[in-house]
Amino acid sequence: MDVSRLLFFLKTLVACPSTTDTHEEAGMYREITKLLSEMEYFRANPQNLMLHPIPGDKHGRAAVAALLEGKGSRTVILSGHYDVVDTIDYGPFQKHALDIDTLGKALDPSALPADALDDLNSGGWIFGRGAADMKAGLALFMSLIEQMSQRPDDINGSILFLAVPDEETNSAGMTGSVEFLTRLSRNRGLEYVCLVDSEPCTFNSDGSYNMYTGSIGKMLPLIYCFGREAHAREPFEGINPNLIMSEIIREIEGNPLLSDRYGDIFTMPPVNLKAMDLRDGYSISTPSASACCFNMLTYRRPPGEIISVLKETAARCFARAVDTINTRIAKYNSCSGGTIKELAWLPRVYTYDELYAVCIKKHGSAMESQMKDFLESRAVRDMDWRDATISIINQLHSFCPDRAPKIIIALAPPYYPHVTTDGRSPGDGDVLKAVDLLQEYSISEFGIPIKVNRFFDGISDLSYCSIQDAGNVINEFKPNMPLWGHSYSIPVEEIKRLNVPGVILGPWGKDLHKYTERLNKDFYLRIAPGLLKYFVYALLGMDAG
Ligand SMILES: [Zn+2]
Q: Is the dihedral of CA 513, 271, 229, 227 positive or negative?
């Protein structure tokens, strides 16, 4: 691979601003298209350079696809995201954040953490926003395509480059491109064998390099607690939803028993991302409802299993909140001589789907149309997805005939299904074989052992390339995510159709999303191109020698 071209692509891509979830991203797809259109192959085959506008996108963003056609139908997809997180964290050096030539010199050494300073002084690292995450990966793909496009007839198949927006925000780029990919495969007779995503990778302390044959899943369960209001003068007349919510947070936060497990690996435990009561302003009564949401990571658990674990947890927390108050009532009575009655509420936990069924049974289609209007209202559409989910539960609960204190469990966007290439899908075997060959090649060519990890733990677009429990998503997930089909959805059927195994094989990066984001130069210019090329050749059954 031509090192000067690779550096040119990297520098050009980094220099083009593309902060995620902004109009800047539209400038980025134009830049990528321009660079590709200057290649001789795409000048001769302009029909193979395609723009796919993301349907209904508020920023007018598009995915860029470039198809390098060789012989036969086997096709490797090389995909990455072109958005980056913003550059505010660079502070006084912000104007250099997108210039890989000047940023390193501009950074104030006294303000750098020790390891970043060592790397800066070594001269072996390229600093810049997106230099690692992941314009380096896109530049690598573009260089490989430029090189291979000089002799397309020698390729035993095709290479499809796909650059998508929005990975850092909602993955609207990838979810909005799945249908495009399946359509392209039908129209052009492409058989996708693997999707290679060049997100930045890491090294282990034993000197091995991490690649990944899957990606972790993520859900955002939202737990709504409905209490019984009481005047502060008579607090034992009700139950405070904030107490129920705090029991839930105490039980779930960082609890390894709620980690998901695949063989001997465990996800990080869940963590609370939001907790609030639903009262505007101040009142001398306790609030009527509260809500909290959790980041839950998955390797294996289907949505239904997570929901039932949360239901059990919520019931326990509800009972504990009532017990706590009853113990305190007894103590208060004994010291004050009072005769306050204990609370008699038993745990009530509904899923959103169950609550919906109860409400519709009572109110019928009139409620259904009111809920639909509410879901489609401007106010809900403009709201943050988590806040919108809370509002929708609140609205639905207003129809509920059961006014007793309760907990309602729903799911908020985004949702990233877990995926792993484990031999269960027909195409997995070929990919795993190519990974084995790559491990041998890496040792013999570079002396670097590759550790193959089942899951990339950083959340990635790989989540939308195949789906391992589509039926569960439709049956268990969708009915409990109120925004599904309104402001949010995932093209489950199209993902099932696409069903391409994916791997993450990228350059070596550090401190992603920080102002010390950097890319290792030697690995990038010498090793990563070799690994990528060998892997693509191995997938297509070609000799990379
Ligand atoms: Zn990334």
A: positive
